[in-house]
Amino acid sequence: MTCTTRLPKPVTEVWDWQMEGLCRGQNSAVFFHPDNERGYARAAREEKAKAICGHCPVLQQCRAHALEAQEPYGVWGGMGEDERRQIVSAARRRVRAYSSSTSLS
């Protein structure tokens, strides 16, 4: 589940970008996998979603939101769940490494 404490306050200006998303009005099943979807079916669905994202005028805002909120499911900002998880994990490792190095000083 998305951690809502990292989300910005409900200010219209913060969320307006979503009104311009190409995913708006699309079938959400393209962007979110059904239970137990694996292999070719999952890859094909994600590629279709990412193709839509690739032309989206708010791709960067969507991606930034997904990474900041650590969205656990779906394709956001042209990135799948595993891609976002890798970026978030790498950022956490960098923070831990930095914290460890500064605490030793």
TrEMBL record:
It is found in: Cytoplasm. Keywords: 4Fe-4S, Cytoplasm, Disulfide bond, DNA-binding, Iron, Iron-sulfur, Metal-binding, Transcription, Transcription regulation. [4Fe-4S] cluster binds at C23, C53, C56, C62. Transmembrane segments: none annotated. InterPro entries: 4FE4S_WBL, Whib. GO terms for molecular function: 4 iron, 4 sulfur cluster binding; dinitrosyl-iron complex binding; DNA binding; metal ion binding; protein-disulfide reductase [NAD(P)H] activity. GO terms for cellular component: cytoplasm. The Fe-S cluster can be nitrosylated by nitric oxide (NO). Binds 1 [4Fe-4S] cluster per subunit. Following nitrosylation of the [4Fe-4S] cluster binds 1 [4Fe-8(NO)] cluster per subunit. Its cofactor is [4Fe-4S] cluster. GO terms for biological process: cell redox homeostasis; negative regulation of DNA-templated transcription. The keyword Iron-sulfur applies. Residues 22-86 form the 4Fe-4S Wbl-type domain. Acts as a transcriptional regulator. Probably redox-responsive. The apo- but not holo-form probably binds DNA. PANTHER family: TRANSCRIPTIONAL REGULATOR WHID, TRANSCRIPTIONAL REGULATOR WHID-RELATED. Belongs to the WhiB family. This is Transcriptional regulator WhiB. It comes from Lentzea jiangxiensis.
